[in-house]
Write a structure and sequence with these properties.
Layout lengths: L5 E8 L6 H9 L16 E8 L3 E8 L3 H7 L4 H5 L4 E7 L5 H17 L4 E7 L6 H19 L4 E5 L6 H11 L5 H15 L3 E6 L5 E6 L17 H18 L6 E5 L4 E6 L4 E7 L7 H27 L1
Parallel strand pairs: 1-3, 1-4, 4-5, 5-6
Antiparallel strand pairs: 2-3, 7-8, 7-11, 9-10, 10-11
Length: 319
């Protein structure tokens, strides 16, 4: 049955202790950040198949980062490790990044070029919470520029992350979305939906992980803008983190999270199960004129259309 399902091979690499398994466990195995302390070091390669957005599977290879294993990956296991890779994620510990780390990273790039030339590369500069807050932006920019220099001509994308805040969700949302073939079509339809329901923001979350798949925001001028300076740019990932923790609390009580509404005098945010594989959040600032029943009806009416878009995405992934 899995032969008919889209399989995307994702390599998670980095030296031992950089935090690879902890972040994987938080995003895909429903660990709390504090619970990752009991995780041991990864031995060789741990394989995990993670269902994402229905019929797409992430074939996640969590590669142990001890020097003996790393050397072996570039020697006898090179073809097995680096062939058919869709995404390489290399994790750097921000406090211990050194020449040995760069050597292994550049060896990964060479192996990717030889075996999976079209693979996307993401670098996570991890444990940013250990850097004083006022210095984080400067430290991240320095590391990012150095990685871009060492990666040239390969294009990469860098994120500063920590298991203790929303930055982990920001990075993994963009990584997973990069694997969705029709995300631009999804965004256009989400924009149409926002205009029809007269909402200020609409956000689409993946059901299991609560990672952000797409979002659309209206500006005061009536235009649509993803990165308005008036908003917290990490607000959706913060919501992902909060709702994910709430879902885990519900599960401990043998209850299933279905919907939530948060309302005050400034806004109304309605979060509800949307399609079999997504949740949607509809935000409006017209609090007095907003109705929970109308919002729920609009979501119900759009549900079949967006489920069809998911089906098309699955078909495109399998092509």
């Amino acid at each position: 049955q899995t032969s008919k399902i889209a399989m995307k091979k994702v390599l998670l690499m980095g030296r031992s202790g950089s935090g690879k398994t902890s972040m994987r466990s938080i995003i895909f195995a429903n660990y709390m950040a504090r619970d990752t302390k009991r995780l041991g070091a990864t031995i060789d390669v741990e394989h995990t198949h993670v269902r994402f957005l229905g019929d797409m599977f992430l074939n996640l290879w969590d590669c142990g980062g001890q020097d003996a294993f790393m050397d072996n990956y570039f020697d006898s296991q090179k073809h097995n490790i680096f062939r058919n890779v869709a995404v390489l994620i290399y994790v750097f510990d921000v406090e211990t990044q050194d020449d040995v780390d760069f050597h292994y990273y550049q060896s990964c790039l060479m192996s990717i070029k030889e075996n999976s030339e079209d693979a996307k590369v993401f670098c996570l500069i991890h444990k940013m919470d250990l850097i004083p807050e006022k210095q984080r932006s400067l430290v991240f920019d320095e590391r990012r520029l150095e990685l871009e220099r060492r990666s040239s001509p390969k294009s990469i994308q860098c994120f500063g992350t920590s298991i203790w805040d929303e930055t982990l969700y920001k990075a993994w949302s963009q990584i997973c979305v990069s694997l969705i073939p029709n995300v631009s079509s999804l965004k256009r339809n989400l924009s149409n939906f926002r205009q029809i329901v007269n909402a200020d923001e609409v956000v689409l979350f993946e059901r299991a992980t609560f990672l952000v798949i797409s979002h659309i925001t209206s500006t005061p001028e009536g235009q649509e803008d993803d990165e308005s300076e008036e908003h917290d740019r990490h607000r959706f990932e913060k919501i992902s983190n909060i709702i994910k923790q709430f879902k885990l609390s519900c599960a401990k009580l043998s209850a299933e999270f279905q919907s939530m509404e948060v309302r005050n005098r400034h806004f109304c945010a309605h979060i509800e199960c949307f399609t079999p594989n997504t949740f949607v959040m509809v935000v409006t600032n017209q609090v007095e004129g907003s109705s929970s029943a109308i919002t729920a009806l609009n979501i119900k009416n759009a549900r079949e259309h967006f489920a069809q878009l998911e089906s098309e995405a699955s078909s495109a992934s399998q092509a």
